[in-house]
Amino acid sequence: MPVKSQSSSPGGPQKEGPRNAPTLKKRQIAMPDGRYMIFYTDDKDVAKDEVRQEGNV
Amino acid sequence: MSELRYNPLLGEWLATATHRQDRTFLPPAGFCPLCPTEAGGFPTEVPEPDYDIVVFENRFPSLQKSPPEPAVEGTAFYPVKPADGICEVVLYSSEHDSTLALQPLRQVEKLIRVWTDRFVELSKHDFVKYVFVFENRGTQIGVTLTHPHGQIYAYPFVPPLVAKELANAKAHHEKNGECLICKIRQTEVTDGRRLVASNDTWTAYVPFFARWPYEVHIAPIRHLQALPELTDNEVSGLARVMKQVLTAYDKVFDMVMPYMMVMHARPSDGGNYDHYHFHIELYPALRTPNKLKYLAGSETGAGMFINDTLPEEKAAELRKIVEGLEF
Question: Of all residues in chain B, what percent are helix, strand and coil, respectively (each to 5)?
Answer without folding.
Answer: 30, 25, 45
